[in-house]
Amino acid sequence: MKLFIKLIRNLLGLIIATLDVLTRGTKLKRSPEKQQQVNDEAANLALYQFFACPFCIKTRRAIYKLNLPIEKRNAQEGSPHREDLLQGGGKIKVPCLRIDQDGKTEWLYESSEIIKYLEKRFA
Ligand SMILES: N[C@@H](CCC(=O)N[C@@H](CS)C(=O)NCC(=O)O)C(=O)O
Predict the structure, then answer these.
(1) Which one of 18, 44, 103, 123 is most buried, by most CB atoms within 10 A?
(2) For residue 63, pLDDT beyond 90
(3) Which residues form the GST N-terminal domain (predicted)?
(4) Residue 31, Cβ neighbours under 10 Å: how many?
């Protein structure tokens, strides 16, 4: 039964992820200089996520629209990133944005908080 629910969830996630790719629209356009600056800043960010999680899809959609090359790290069972998330952030919950800045690391949970943070910093 547990396996069946997992299968249905993953299937739904896959459908949502496909719809997301088909309906994403356009990316934010910046001058090459500004985009380079944004790319450099985005190198200090990483999104811990599951491919088929609807909250992660919502967050990835915002990242795409803001044109941010943020590394996506799979936090599913069996992935080494899962342990980093647990040790660093304190819990296994995705999406979680890892922010490395001024020698400190912050772990930001909650899809709406992550999107708010990225829009404030990069929109
Ligand atoms: N309110 C949270 C919900 C996040 C959430 O429920 N994520 C699920 C995956 S869809 C999760 O991480 N569950 C823990 C687990 O599966 O181990 C958000 O908007 O980010």
Answers:
(1) 44
(2) yes
(3) 43-123
(4) 8
Please tell me the distance from the alpha carbon of residue 29 to that of residue 65, in angstroms, as a whole number: 9
Burial of 94 (0-12, 13-18, 19+ CB in 10 A): buried
CATH code assigned to 2-25+32-122: 3.40.30.10
Q: Is the CB of residue 61 below 6 angstroms from any atom belonging to ligand 1?
A: no
DSSP 70: P
Contacts of 35 (CB under 8 A, 6+ apart): 67
d(CA 112, CA 89): 17
Reported as a single tens digit per residue, the pLDDT across 92-122 is 999 999 999 999 999 999 999 999 999 999 9
Q: How far apart (Å, rounded) are the C-alpha atoms in residues 91 and 75?
A: 11
SS3 51: coil
Rounded percentage of the chain residues whose pLDDT exceeds 90: 80
